[in-house]
Specification:
Blueprint (H helix, E strand, L loop, with lengths): L2 E9 L5 E10 L2 E6 L6 H8 L7 E6 L2 E2 L4 H6 L1 E4 L11 H11 L5 H14 L15 H12 L6 E5 L7 H14 L4 E5 L3 H7 L2 E6 L2 E6 L1 H8 L3 E6 L1 H6 L6 E7 L2 E7 L8 E2 L4 H9 L8
Parallel strand pairs: 3-8, 3-9, 6-7, 7-8
Antiparallel strand pairs: 1-2, 1-4, 4-5, 9-10, 11-13, 11-14, 12-13
Helix pairs in contact: 3-4, 5-6
The structure holds adenosine-5'-diphosphate.
Length: 293
Protein backbone atom coordinates (compact mmCIF):
# COMPACT_ATOMS: atom_id res chain seq x y z
CA UNK A 1 0.00 0.00 0.00
CA UNK A 2 1.28 3.45 -0.90
CA UNK A 3 -0.16 6.85 -1.66
CA UNK A 4 0.56 8.10 -5.16
CA UNK A 5 -0.09 11.72 -5.97
CA UNK A 6 0.30 12.89 -9.57
CA UNK A 7 -0.08 16.30 -11.16
CA UNK A 8 -2.22 17.76 -8.38
CA UNK A 9 -3.08 21.44 -8.93
CA UNK A 10 -5.40 23.88 -7.22
CA UNK A 11 -6.08 27.54 -7.89
CA UNK A 12 -8.43 29.31 -5.48
CA UNK A 13 -11.17 31.64 -6.69
CA UNK A 14 -8.98 34.65 -5.79
CA UNK A 15 -6.36 33.46 -8.30
CA UNK A 16 -3.86 32.06 -5.77
CA UNK A 17 -2.24 28.91 -7.14
CA UNK A 18 -1.90 26.90 -3.93
CA UNK A 19 -0.82 23.63 -5.58
CA UNK A 20 1.10 23.58 -8.83
CA UNK A 21 1.52 20.14 -10.41
CA UNK A 22 2.35 18.27 -7.19
CA UNK A 23 3.52 14.68 -7.63
CA UNK A 24 4.70 12.51 -4.73
CA UNK A 25 4.92 8.84 -3.81
CA UNK A 26 4.45 8.06 -0.16
CA UNK A 27 5.25 4.51 0.95
CA UNK A 28 4.14 3.03 4.28
CA UNK A 29 5.98 4.93 7.03
CA UNK A 30 6.38 8.52 8.14
CA UNK A 31 6.65 11.15 5.43
CA UNK A 32 7.41 14.74 6.44
CA UNK A 33 6.03 17.76 4.64
CA UNK A 34 7.89 21.03 5.18
CA UNK A 35 7.29 24.46 3.76
CA UNK A 36 6.88 28.11 4.78
CA UNK A 37 3.47 29.62 5.56
CA UNK A 38 1.37 29.81 2.45
CA UNK A 39 3.33 27.03 0.70
CA UNK A 40 0.20 24.96 0.13
CA UNK A 41 0.62 22.32 2.84
CA UNK A 42 -2.89 22.63 4.27
CA UNK A 43 -4.39 22.67 0.80
CA UNK A 44 -2.59 19.42 -0.01
CA UNK A 45 -3.56 17.77 3.26
CA UNK A 46 -7.17 18.89 3.14
CA UNK A 47 -7.45 17.63 -0.43
CA UNK A 48 -6.09 14.21 0.55
CA UNK A 49 -8.42 14.19 3.56
CA UNK A 50 -11.38 14.66 1.15
CA UNK A 51 -12.23 18.04 2.68
CA UNK A 52 -11.74 20.02 -0.51
CA UNK A 53 -11.40 19.52 -4.26
CA UNK A 54 -8.36 19.78 -6.50
CA UNK A 55 -8.70 21.21 -10.03
CA UNK A 56 -6.62 18.54 -11.74
CA UNK A 57 -4.49 15.55 -10.86
CA UNK A 58 -4.89 12.16 -9.22
CA UNK A 59 -4.23 10.54 -5.86
CA UNK A 60 -4.51 6.82 -5.23
CA UNK A 61 -4.13 4.88 -2.01
CA UNK A 62 -3.63 1.25 -3.01
CA UNK A 63 -6.72 0.60 -5.12
CA UNK A 64 -8.67 3.61 -3.80
CA UNK A 65 -9.10 6.72 -5.93
CA UNK A 66 -8.66 9.27 -3.14
CA UNK A 67 -10.20 12.19 -5.03
CA UNK A 68 -13.30 10.29 -6.17
CA UNK A 69 -14.07 7.47 -3.72
CA UNK A 70 -14.43 9.83 -0.80
CA UNK A 71 -16.53 7.56 1.38
CA UNK A 72 -14.00 4.79 1.04
CA UNK A 73 -11.12 7.13 1.86
CA UNK A 74 -12.91 8.38 4.95
CA UNK A 75 -13.27 4.84 6.23
CA UNK A 76 -9.52 4.31 6.10
CA UNK A 77 -8.37 7.85 6.95
CA UNK A 78 -7.09 9.16 10.25
CA UNK A 79 -6.96 12.95 10.15
CA UNK A 80 -5.47 15.03 12.93
CA UNK A 81 -5.91 18.73 12.10
CA UNK A 82 -4.09 21.52 13.97
CA UNK A 83 -7.12 22.24 16.02
CA UNK A 84 -10.29 20.37 16.11
CA UNK A 85 -13.47 21.41 17.79
CA UNK A 86 -13.93 19.20 20.79
CA UNK A 87 -17.08 19.63 22.79
CA UNK A 88 -15.39 20.89 25.97
CA UNK A 89 -17.99 19.45 28.31
CA UNK A 90 -17.86 15.95 26.83
CA UNK A 91 -15.96 13.30 28.76
CA UNK A 92 -13.05 11.68 26.94
CA UNK A 93 -14.42 8.16 26.84
CA UNK A 94 -17.91 9.21 25.73
CA UNK A 95 -16.51 11.45 23.03
CA UNK A 96 -14.21 8.77 21.64
CA UNK A 97 -17.15 6.38 21.65
CA UNK A 98 -19.21 8.88 19.64
CA UNK A 99 -16.40 9.31 17.10
CA UNK A 100 -16.21 5.50 16.84
CA UNK A 101 -19.92 5.34 15.99
CA UNK A 102 -19.40 8.05 13.36
CA UNK A 103 -16.59 5.95 11.93
CA UNK A 104 -19.08 3.12 11.47
CA UNK A 105 -17.99 0.91 14.36
CA UNK A 106 -21.46 -0.01 15.51
CA UNK A 107 -20.88 -3.28 17.40
CA UNK A 108 -20.94 -2.33 21.06
CA UNK A 109 -18.35 -4.78 22.41
CA UNK A 110 -15.94 -4.08 19.58
CA UNK A 111 -16.29 -0.37 20.26
CA UNK A 112 -15.79 -0.73 23.99
CA UNK A 113 -12.62 -2.79 23.53
CA UNK A 114 -11.29 -0.45 20.85
CA UNK A 115 -11.88 2.72 22.91
CA UNK A 116 -10.18 1.16 25.90
CA UNK A 117 -7.20 0.03 23.82
CA UNK A 118 -6.80 3.49 22.25
CA UNK A 119 -7.15 5.36 25.53
CA UNK A 120 -4.52 3.09 27.08
CA UNK A 121 -2.22 3.48 24.09
CA UNK A 122 -2.41 7.27 24.37
CA UNK A 123 -2.01 7.23 28.15
CA UNK A 124 -5.46 8.69 28.70
CA UNK A 125 -7.20 5.71 30.26
CA UNK A 126 -6.99 7.13 33.77
CA UNK A 127 -8.41 10.42 32.48
CA UNK A 128 -11.26 8.82 30.54
CA UNK A 129 -13.98 10.28 32.73
CA UNK A 130 -12.57 13.82 32.63
CA UNK A 131 -13.98 16.52 30.40
CA UNK A 132 -11.79 17.16 27.37
CA UNK A 133 -12.19 20.93 27.89
CA UNK A 134 -9.93 20.59 30.94
CA UNK A 135 -7.22 18.61 29.13
CA UNK A 136 -3.72 20.07 28.69
CA UNK A 137 -2.42 20.74 25.18
CA UNK A 138 -0.54 17.43 25.20
CA UNK A 139 -3.57 15.46 26.37
CA UNK A 140 -5.71 17.03 23.66
CA UNK A 141 -3.11 16.09 21.07
CA UNK A 142 -2.98 12.51 22.36
CA UNK A 143 -6.75 12.38 22.36
CA UNK A 144 -6.60 13.55 18.73
CA UNK A 145 -4.36 10.57 17.97
CA UNK A 146 -6.84 8.21 19.63
CA UNK A 147 -9.60 9.64 17.41
CA UNK A 148 -7.39 9.50 14.31
CA UNK A 149 -6.58 5.84 14.98
CA UNK A 150 -10.20 4.68 15.14
CA UNK A 151 -10.95 2.15 12.44
CA UNK A 152 -7.31 1.11 11.86
CA UNK A 153 -6.51 3.77 9.23
CA UNK A 154 -4.13 3.10 6.35
CA UNK A 155 -3.66 6.81 5.65
CA UNK A 156 -2.93 9.14 8.55
CA UNK A 157 -2.60 12.89 8.04
CA UNK A 158 -1.16 14.94 10.89
CA UNK A 159 -1.02 18.73 10.72
CA UNK A 160 1.53 20.67 12.85
CA UNK A 161 1.34 18.39 15.84
CA UNK A 162 3.62 19.85 18.48
CA UNK A 163 2.60 23.52 18.61
CA UNK A 164 2.13 24.50 22.22
CA UNK A 165 3.48 21.30 23.77
CA UNK A 166 6.09 21.29 26.51
CA UNK A 167 9.23 19.18 25.89
CA UNK A 168 7.99 16.16 27.84
CA UNK A 169 4.63 16.14 26.07
CA UNK A 170 6.36 16.61 22.74
CA UNK A 171 8.60 13.63 23.30
CA UNK A 172 5.65 11.47 24.34
CA UNK A 173 3.76 12.60 21.27
CA UNK A 174 6.74 11.72 19.05
CA UNK A 175 6.95 8.23 20.46
CA UNK A 176 3.27 7.72 19.74
CA UNK A 177 3.62 9.07 16.21
CA UNK A 178 6.60 6.89 15.43
CA UNK A 179 4.52 3.81 16.25
CA UNK A 180 1.91 4.80 13.68
CA UNK A 181 4.21 4.52 10.70
CA UNK A 182 4.61 0.76 10.95
CA UNK A 183 1.63 -0.19 8.81
CA UNK A 184 0.12 3.03 7.48
CA UNK A 185 1.13 5.91 5.25
CA UNK A 186 1.63 8.83 7.64
CA UNK A 187 1.89 12.37 6.26
CA UNK A 188 3.22 14.75 8.88
CA UNK A 189 3.26 18.48 8.30
CA UNK A 190 5.08 20.73 10.73
CA UNK A 191 7.18 23.87 11.03
CA UNK A 192 9.65 22.08 13.27
CA UNK A 193 12.26 20.80 10.86
CA UNK A 194 14.09 18.89 13.58
CA UNK A 195 10.96 16.83 14.27
CA UNK A 196 10.84 15.73 10.65
CA UNK A 197 14.55 14.87 10.72
CA UNK A 198 14.00 12.70 13.78
CA UNK A 199 10.75 11.05 12.85
CA UNK A 200 10.45 10.72 9.09
CA UNK A 201 12.07 8.34 6.64
CA UNK A 202 11.36 10.75 3.80
CA UNK A 203 10.70 14.44 3.48
CA UNK A 204 9.34 16.77 0.82
CA UNK A 205 9.78 20.55 0.79
CA UNK A 206 6.84 22.44 -0.67
CA UNK A 207 7.20 26.11 -1.60
CA UNK A 208 4.84 28.27 -3.66
CA UNK A 209 2.68 25.25 -4.39
CA UNK A 210 5.52 23.24 -5.92
CA UNK A 211 7.49 20.31 -4.60
CA UNK A 212 11.02 21.67 -4.51
CA UNK A 213 12.83 18.64 -3.12
CA UNK A 214 12.17 15.05 -1.98
CA UNK A 215 14.52 12.62 -0.26
CA UNK A 216 15.60 11.05 2.99
CA UNK A 217 16.87 13.56 5.57
CA UNK A 218 20.33 11.93 5.57
CA UNK A 219 20.62 11.87 1.80
CA UNK A 220 19.69 15.54 1.54
CA UNK A 221 22.14 16.55 4.28
CA UNK A 222 24.88 14.58 2.50
CA UNK A 223 24.12 16.40 -0.74
CA UNK A 224 24.33 19.81 0.89
CA UNK A 225 27.32 19.03 3.14
CA UNK A 226 30.19 19.82 0.76
CA UNK A 227 28.71 23.22 -0.12
CA UNK A 228 27.82 24.43 3.36
CA UNK A 229 30.08 26.84 5.25
CA UNK A 230 29.71 28.86 8.42
CA UNK A 231 31.38 31.69 10.27
CA UNK A 232 30.76 33.25 13.65
CA UNK A 233 30.98 37.04 13.63
CA UNK A 234 29.90 40.21 15.39
CA UNK A 235 26.76 42.10 14.45
CA UNK A 236 28.88 44.76 12.71
CA UNK A 237 30.63 42.12 10.60
CA UNK A 238 27.27 40.55 9.79
CA UNK A 239 25.95 43.92 8.64
CA UNK A 240 29.04 44.50 6.51
CA UNK A 241 28.64 41.23 4.56
CA UNK A 242 28.11 42.01 0.88
CA UNK A 243 24.63 41.45 -0.59
CA UNK A 244 26.13 38.89 -2.95
CA UNK A 245 27.06 36.56 -0.05
CA UNK A 246 24.88 33.42 -0.48
CA UNK A 247 23.58 33.42 3.11
CA UNK A 248 20.88 30.89 3.97
CA UNK A 249 20.57 31.59 7.70
CA UNK A 250 21.95 33.62 10.58
CA UNK A 251 21.76 32.29 14.14
CA UNK A 252 22.34 34.21 17.30
CA UNK A 253 24.58 32.23 19.62
CA UNK A 254 25.81 33.71 22.88
CA UNK A 255 25.52 37.22 21.45
CA UNK A 256 27.47 36.35 18.28
CA UNK A 257 26.06 35.73 14.83
CA UNK A 258 26.66 32.40 13.15
CA UNK A 259 26.19 32.90 9.43
CA UNK A 260 25.68 29.89 7.18
CA UNK A 261 26.21 30.09 3.43
CA UNK A 262 25.90 27.72 0.45
CA UNK A 263 28.73 28.14 -2.05
CA UNK A 264 31.10 26.25 -4.34
CA UNK A 265 34.04 27.06 -2.07
CA UNK A 266 34.45 28.57 1.40
CA UNK A 267 34.26 32.38 1.34
CA UNK A 268 37.06 34.17 3.18
CA UNK A 269 37.12 33.16 6.86
CA UNK A 270 34.31 30.61 6.54
CA UNK A 271 34.71 26.96 7.47
CA UNK A 272 33.03 23.72 6.41
CA UNK A 273 29.87 23.11 8.47
CA UNK A 274 27.91 19.99 9.36
CA UNK A 275 24.64 20.07 7.38
CA UNK A 276 21.32 19.54 9.15
CA UNK A 277 17.87 19.19 7.62
CA UNK A 278 17.28 22.77 8.75
CA UNK A 279 20.15 23.91 6.50
CA UNK A 280 18.59 21.94 3.64
CA UNK A 281 15.26 23.63 4.32
CA UNK A 282 16.80 27.13 4.38
CA UNK A 283 18.92 26.45 1.30
CA UNK A 284 15.79 25.45 -0.63
CA UNK A 285 13.51 28.22 0.58
CA UNK A 286 16.26 30.83 0.09
CA UNK A 287 16.53 29.65 -3.52
CA UNK A 288 20.10 28.41 -3.03
CA UNK A 289 19.65 24.70 -3.67
CA UNK A 290 20.37 24.94 -7.39
CA UNK A 291 23.86 23.60 -7.94
CA UNK A 292 23.76 21.38 -4.85
CA UNK A 293 22.37 18.29 -6.58
P1 LIG B 1 0.16 26.43 4.19
O1 LIG B 1 -0.68 25.40 4.86
O2 LIG B 1 1.45 25.87 3.65
O3 LIG B 1 0.40 27.64 5.05
P2 LIG B 1 -2.18 26.92 2.52
O4 LIG B 1 -2.51 25.69 1.77
O5 LIG B 1 -3.00 27.24 3.73
O6 LIG B 1 -0.61 26.94 2.88
O7 LIG B 1 -2.29 28.17 1.53
C1 LIG B 1 -1.66 28.21 0.28
C2 LIG B 1 -2.02 29.52 -0.39
O8 LIG B 1 -3.41 29.51 -0.73
C3 LIG B 1 -1.82 30.75 0.47
O9 LIG B 1 -1.40 31.80 -0.37
C4 LIG B 1 -3.19 31.02 1.04
O10 LIG B 1 -3.35 32.40 1.32
C5 LIG B 1 -4.08 30.58 -0.10
N1 LIG B 1 -5.38 30.06 0.37
C6 LIG B 1 -5.59 29.06 1.25
N2 LIG B 1 -6.89 28.81 1.42
C7 LIG B 1 -7.55 29.69 0.61
C8 LIG B 1 -8.93 29.93 0.31
N3 LIG B 1 -9.90 29.22 0.90
N4 LIG B 1 -9.22 30.91 -0.56
C9 LIG B 1 -8.25 31.62 -1.14
N5 LIG B 1 -6.93 31.44 -0.93
C10 LIG B 1 -6.58 30.49 -0.06
Amino acid sequence: MSLSIAGLSKTYANGVKALDDVSLDLPVGMFGLLGPNGAGKSTLMRTLATLQEADTGTATLGAIDVLRDKEEVRRTLGYLPQEFGLSPRARAHDLLDTFAILKGITARTERRDLCEALLRKTNLWEHRRKRVGGFSGGMKRRFGIAVALLGDPKLIIVDEPTAGLDPAERSRFHNLLSELGSDAVVLLSTHIVEDVANLCEQVAILDQGRIQLVGTPLELCDQLGPRLFSKTMSMEERRALPESMPVISTWLRYGQHEVRVVADAAPDGFEAAQATLEDVYFAVTAGRWAGVA
